[in-house]
Amino acid sequence: MRAYSIEGMGDALLSVLHPLIVTHARPDGDTVAACAALCHFYRDRGTPVAYASEEEIPKRLQFLLNGFERATDFTDYTPITVDVASPGQLGLLAEPLKDGRAVRYMIDHHATGRPFAPGLIIPDASSAAEVIFLIFESMEAKKKMKITTEIAGALYAGMSSDTGCFRYSNATPRTHRAAARLLAGHIDGAEINRLLFDAKTDEQIRAEGLIAERLVSAGDGITYATLTKAERDGFGLSFADFETAIDIVRSLEGTEIAMVAKETETPGEYRVSMRSTGFDVSSVAAAFEGGGHVRAAGCTVVANTPKEAAEQVLAVIRDKLKK
Residues 265-300: pLDDT tens digits? Predict the structure, then answer.
């Protein structure tokens, strides 16, 4: 796959006449914000643009894409993915996008994954939003576009989301410089962070409480929680309500490796999220054809029970801890 430079990626984006910005399955703050930034970029140019997501954007993130159309027919569009490391992350969109082969460009920041289209991947960037910021900054310097307040707000939201409000180790000096540049564009950073981190629905709060009741200490600084679809349904909660579940697990004192295994809508399929204070969880995710970063990664496993799903991943973690 062709790897573009920052400048080359900017020129490539300018060449697209009917863009469709595609998020990954189970959209999080970074993929939605990166999508929003590109949607605003094309709208500012007068170019018709739409976005595609496997499922409806979570309520707490819908403010980012207000006013943009979610496409259902991709026939006349040129797909561009954001924050999608592998075809498997396209979820139900994998089929209409031909397992990624129908994608024109991909923009990403994951160190591990399976590239499926030409594009730009910057593994040491905090987020896909930061990658897009670097592209737009280069374009703006050459007077090819302007980073408007709307674009700045979206990019700031993406960076803040993937760095835990700039608390995680992936928030580098470059990330902070980018955030400062965006804040200088008169965006309301405090309000954006409130919407991202403090404006939780009743369902999200109940979901966090449910996870807190299921914490299991596995020794070696490992803490995990599991959740079945039946348990989720029993409390009237959706899969999306558990987006912040991993933060509850990682917050337990003494936790160095945190994991949550949540059963999806497909019986026996568990989506696993992992975080660490230093251990390379991306290498664990890769063992299950997943991906991510050293301290934040995810994968999917198939198991008969939630305990079995957790044990599959724990076995790989323990094996790597021994080396």
Answer: 999 999 999 999 999 999 999 899 888 888 888 899
Q: What is the dihedral of CA 187, 188, 190, 191, to 10 degrees?
A: -130
- CATH class, domain 6-197, is alpha beta
Topology (CATH level 3) of domain 202-322: Diaminopimelate Epimerase; Chain A, domain 1 (3.10.310)
Sign of the torsion angle spanned by Cα atoms 298, 194, 54, 263: positive
Read off the pLDDT of residues 46-81 as tens digits, 9 standing for 90 and up. 999 999 999 899 888 999 999 999 998 898 999 999
Residue 321: closest CA among 271, 288, 280: 280
Any idea what DSSP says for residue 100? G
Any idea where the domains of the chain sit in the sequence? 6-197, 202-322
Which contiguous run of DSSP H or E holds residue 199? Answer: none
Q: What does pTM read for this prediction?
A: 0.88
DSSP state of 253: T
Residue 127: name the closest of 182, 202, 73 by CA: 182
Cβ atoms 278, 311 nearer than 8 A:
no
Residues 130-152 have pLDDT tens digits of: 999 999 999 999 999 999 999 99
Q: How many Å separate Cα 223 from the centre of its chain?
A: 22
